[in-house]
Amino acid sequence: MQHILIADDNQDITDILSTYSRMEGFEPVIASDGEEAIKMFTQYNPEVVLLDVMMPKEDGYEVCRKIRSKSNVPVILITARGEDFDKIMGLDIGADDYIVKPFSPREVMARVRAVMRRMTKASKEASSENVISVGNLDINLDEYTLHIGGTKISLTKKEIETMWTLASNPNKVFTRDNLLDSLWGFDYFGDSRTVDSHIKRLRAKLDVEEHPSWTIKTIWGVGYKFEVVEK
């Protein structure tokens, strides 16, 4: 039986999401606060996590960080706060998607299906070609690690996936919409500012180490590409 962890302190929400989860073939596991969510995650090892941001004891952001430190399980944040900063923060700490209340439970289940499809696709791709090496850059998608010149760079799951997408296609220009579709799915209701902020934070982390043979280049008015520098 596949478990889905639903963490929210609103019982009406957990009840309706439990009902729809069972219709999708999941066995729901319920947590009403952050500490219980971590306990249930460890006990049941769910296939996907629906995580409210504003919870007692530990908020959803902190729970997401703890989950992501030991697992790549899909995490979808659910919250009443819909500002760009909140969305970007959630995605940067490793969430796979972000849904704003009020929501349709059918939409939530559609997001669950989409994120699990992307996870399955990434796993298949990783099993066939799980390492990319370009110059002093090494990316391992099985281990979700990135090294520059042998130094491990601490990146979020989404940042690793961004680098994998770009470095897998050297010198190919990705529009902002391309990256939204590839990394967050066609049903992610974000905008180009999410991509720009994400790339800015990623560059800041990468630039702590020199990488003269490659760079993430901005193509003004279009998007970004992983550029291999010819010598």
TrEMBL record:
Modified residues (4-aspartylphosphate): D52
CDD domains: REC_OmpR (cd17574), trans_reg_C (cd00383)
Entry protein name: Stage 0 sporulation protein A homolog
GO molecular function, a single term: phosphorelay response regulator activity
Domain Response regulatory residues, every copy: 3-116
Function: May play the central regulatory role in sporulation. It may be an element of the effector pathway responsible for the activation of sporulation genes in response to nutritional stress. Spo0A may act in concert with spo0H (a sigma factor) to control the expression of some genes that are critical to the sporulation process.
GO biological process, one term: regulation of DNA-templated transcription
Pfam families per record: Response_reg, Trans_reg_C
Alphabetical keyword list: DNA-binding, Phosphoprotein, Transcription, Transcription regulation, Two-component regulatory system
SUPFAM superfamilies: C-terminal effector domain of the bipartite response regulators, CheY-like
Lineage: Bacteria, Bacillati, Bacillota, Clostridia, Lachnospirales
Regions recorded as binding DNA: 129-228
